[in-house]
Structures are given as C-alpha cells and as structure tokens.
Amino acid sequence: MIETIRVELGNRSYPIHIGSGTLAGGDLFLAPLEPTEVLILTNETIAPLYLAQIRANFTKKSCHNLILPDGEAHKNLETLEHILTFMLERGFKRGALLVALGGGVIGDLGGFAASCYQRGISYIQVPTTLLAQVDSSVGGKTAVNHRLGKNMIGAFHQPSAVITDTKTLTTLPDRELRAGIAEIIKYGLIRDFPLFEWLESNIDNLLGRDSYTLKTAISLSCKNKAEVVASDEKEENIRATLNFGHTFGHAIETALGYGTWLHGEAVALGMCMATRLSYAIGSLTMEEVVRVESLLRRADLPIVPPEGLSEDALLTVMKSDKKNVDDRIRLVLLESLGSARVTTDYPHEKLADAIKNGSVS
Amino acid sequence: MIETIRVELGNRSYPIHIGSGTLAGGDLFLAPLEPTEVLILTNETIAPLYLAQIRANFTKKSCHNLILPDGEAHKNLETLEHILTFMLERGFKRGALLVALGGGVIGDLGGFAASCYQRGISYIQVPTTLLAQVDSSVGGKTAVNHRLGKNMIGAFHQPSAVITDTKTLTTLPDRELRAGIAEIIKYGLIRDFPLFEWLESNIDNLLGRDSYTLKTAISLSCKNKAEVVASDEKEENIRATLNFGHTFGHAIETALGYGTWLHGEAVALGMCMATRLSYAIGSLTMEEVVRVESLLRRADLPIVPPEGLSEDALLTVMKSDKKNVDDRIRLVLLESLGSARVTTDYPHEKLADAIKNGSVS
User: Fold this and answer.
1) What ipTM was predicted for this assembly?
2) Minimal Cβ distance to A120: which of B88, B95, B156
3) Is 0.90 surpassed by the pTM of this model?
4) CA dihedral of residues B5, B9, B12, B15 (deg, nearest 10)
5) Catalytic: B349?
C-alpha cells in the first residue's frame, strides 16, 4: 500500500508517495505532468540497480539518462553545467521533466539544475537512501558546493512529487542506513516526542530493515518535514530548527575532511553536542541526555568526538556558518525532548565544554 | 520629483523609483533593508561614471565593488562563479545586498548571482541604460547565456527595489537610447494604445533627451511592465506578450552574430515582421502597419532586414526558441494597435513572407 503525504505550499504543493514497489509506479511519475522530454539523472552506483525500472515508466516519452560518478565531490558548478549542457544539446524545452534518482547529492544537483534550466522546469525526487527519503528530498532546498563552503550556491525549488520506494533500502549499505536514522531521531528530538519514544521501542526492527517499520519511520519523518516546510518554506524562522545538530555536524565534516564521516554520522555527534549544551544551560535533565545518547548508541552512531578533532577548528568553522546573523553562533537547542528553538543566547564557555566533553553516560 | 511605481507581488512586492538624481538617494537604497554586507556589481564603462555616487550611500556598511568587463560576452556561468566566489571570499552572509549598477547584462548577472548565493539574497537594480530602465530591470527575470542559447540558465528572482536615475541617460550612446525606445514602442503596440499615440507626438523630444519626456516614457513603460508582471510573474500566459518582436529579434541577433546589432534594434525589426504577419492574417490594416513602421523609422530603428540575412537561417533559430510548446513557432501577434496575443495559429508561408518582405511604406 502506498501512503501519500502532501506538502502544502499553495500552487507549489506536492505529494510524497511512500511504499514498496513505487519505482514501477507509472502514473505516479506522469500524472499530472505531461513532459515534453524526460531526463533521468542518476549515478554509477544506482544506475545498474534501478535505472531500467524507472525508464520503463517513460516508454512513450523522449527519455534520456545521464549517469554521473558517485559522490559529494561531484556536487559542484562544473557538474551542474554538464547537466544543463546535456539538456540543451538535446533540445529540452520548458516543459521538460527531470527525475533525480539517487541520494542527497543527486537530489540537490538535479533540483538545482531543474531550478535554473530555462529559469525552471519540473522535477521529481526519487530518493534511494534513507537520509534522502526522510530529509533532503522533501522541501525544495537544492544546491551545489563551492570550495569555500557546502551548499553555498543553490535555490529553493520545490519538486512536483517525491516518490520513495522502500525496496531501494535493501541495497543500501548499513552505515548509510544508520546515517539516515540519525535524521529520523532528529525529528523526534526537535518536535515529535512520540516519534522519539516509538524509535526507542522500534530501533532494532529499523536496523533490521523490517519493511513495515521502515515505511512507518519514513512516513512519520516526512510528515514532520512537510509540516515544517509548509509553515516556513524559505527558512525564515521555524524551518531553522531542522538544522538541529547540523551546525556542529557541518563543522565536524569540514574539520575531518569531507567524506571521512557520513553527513548523518556527523549530525549524530552534533546532536549529542547540542543536547549536552541544552543540558548545560538547564533545559534538559541528565536523564534526558542519557536517553538521547543511548538511542544514538543503539543505532551505532557516533556520540563522542574522534581522536584529534580540535575544539578550536570546530569553533572556527561554526563561526563562518551561513546561518549566523552576527558574530554569535546561532544554534538549535532543545527546550525539552520534542521541542527546540533557535538561539544565540548561551554562555560561550558552555559551548566549548559541550564540544570537548565526551559522552555523559 | 521622484515617481514611484509598485510591482504588486504579495510579499515579493517592490517599488520602482524614477527620477533625476536618485543615485544619491541614500534612504532609497537602504530602507527597508539592513544589509550585513553590500556588493556593488558594475562594469568598466559605468564604474568611472557612477560608482562613487552609489558607494556614498553605503558609507556605514561593509561595502565592496566588483567591476566586470563590459559586454554580453561576459554574461556566462564563468562570470557568475566569479561573482559568487568574490562574495564567499569576503564572508558575505544571507543578509547581504547586491546592487546591480549597469545595463541589462549587469542586471541579469547580478540578479542571478543574488538568486543563487546561499539560495537567495536581496538585490537592487540600478539600471543605467534606457532599455534596462524600461524593461529588463523590472520583473525578476535573471539569467546567463550558454553557448547553445541566450538566457538559457537563470531564475525568477525579484529585486527589492529598482532605482532609475534619468541623469544616467546623459552619458548613454545615441544608438543605445534608440534601442531602448524600441521597447517603449512595444508597450504601446501590445497593450497601451494611448502610449503609442503619445510616442507619435513626443518621439522627437524623447530622441532629444528632454528630461521630462524621458521620465514620462520610463514611468509609462514601467507601469505597463509592472501590471503584466503582477498578473503573471512566471510567464505562464499574459507575460509572454512582452516577447512581441522578440522571437524574431533573438533569431536576427543569432543569425547576424551577437553584438552586430543591439537587442533593441533586432526587436524593432522583429516587431515590423510581427506587424506585417498580423496584417497578413487580417488583424491589422495597411494604414496601421504604416503607422508602426513610421514611428520606428522616426526613431531611426531598422525596419528592413540587412543584406544577406537569410530567411531560412532565421526560421531555423526561431524553431528552437524555448518558448515553443511543440514544433510550431509560438509568436506574439497584434490583434489591433494596443492589443496582442500569443498564438501558433497562422499560415506558415505568411510567416516566411513577413520575414522576407521589406518595408511596406
């Protein structure tokens, strides 16, 4: 059975379809669009697994595919230009459709290409990693990296649909599955305490890739993301709480060198740091901090900084975050388990402590 | 006296300020924005003339300027990246403001850079050519060129304000002034017959750069553009009528090689071709065609194809226009003087005739 969640954004509203076998969805891909041309954008890892299945939905259309090398290193302006040139050379018109089949890199690149090709064409997200399914495929944030920062060049461009097939998770490496779980835990922590409790009861089934548990986790996550995006599309206020753990996380990724840790792993450790800081300023009890760490640990996600990660290096990167409004580092902190707020109001030395200290439990 | 026209687009509404001496406007530039940093983007021709004046408005801000070489050849992804890197290197945040000081190339480049820098920052258009003042600075169309087509990569990103100083027209070359007049005549033809008649009476004062006449022409043009944009921001229907003469015009520019003719000159000849086709299918009388040609001729704008411009070359380019929905060439034709519609419904041989034939008068 396919579950459908709507992202309510007026004339930019769209459905998120979640189910097993949706890749062969046919109508899901075409209705209500009637594309003049179709580009399926994917990468070398995903193409042999799922490209043929997707193409089968577009037999009656002029359908092309472009297979990129795998990896974050290719999420840049050069690859963007390559995609745009590919479409121009094949005479793609404004009525064209781009289908982004892959993880966060393909989704971000494909979405940005769709946003600026002839000032905007339609695109569909077909996320194949858990992280993309619960987070990056929903909400219209698209971007490429610049050598001076991640996601520094991009656009808000909502997809026409998100189509998630839980079957694609059967081929996902374990480490990437866990990285996706970090983002699910995030929704529990910042706005959905029942989801947090549900995860405490179901984490083992989730790690065991039980199909029903996966679908439930994805749909509960998408519901949270859809609500937040609907109320603050351009991240002017509440949407910023979705960055819980991310300011720390991006700094960890930068300090370690991209590719060393997965995004979700860095976010997990970042959430621990933010949780410890929330405790240090009196918003959480020690028992609550232990609960958070314990759930992350059960998902085999990192909760202590790796050897040699320098506190100063982290703080330097965090100060240059694009979300800062002045010289203070803007952070998302917990008010309780299931509630978060964006703030710059905390003592700086407690931030340094929260970064330095290891696990409390 | 400064005249202000509002472009009504909900929370993306903005003012167009038109007057003499507005460059020294101070408050016009800052209120209601409080930018964290300011980038003034301009070119080598404009910088010595007006950069100091603009900078004087931002003495209390962290203000940088970036001076590009002049010309359409630089409106590409490479220059875009250069602008984005410039801002990243100087730590520009999401609260930054870009001021695009120049003609259409600077406006299109600056607007697109603002649209994708950290997924969108504010920008102000300060158009210094008549063409930019009456057309390209208003409406949020931003883009760069690709070797396979003009404006193929871009975004809809509305400015926070348009500030037009009629004094900047004193340094504008004659040929560029006339090219701008072509776009003013366009508004008269497609939706504002009183403006067309006003132009018939005032064309000599306009060419003589009478300050009051210029201001009136700019403000009547902006009023038309603002109304069209307000009712169809993303060019889903009525905004397409603004392309009157442009499908022909772009083809003429491409066929002659960019830079041979100015955009406004190509549009003038394109409007003649569209007018002749409108006559050929019975929408206009011969007297009306003569009136159109006569006004364009008084503005010293081209109304006959140059030697050696091949009809086939033009048709080939027109067929690849991004506005086409199928294999038929979509054109804007006149229903009467002051009224236009988008159509593919005309006999193909009459299109060929309209391109081939010279002036009727």
Assistant:
1) 0.93
2) B156
3) yes
4) 0
5) no
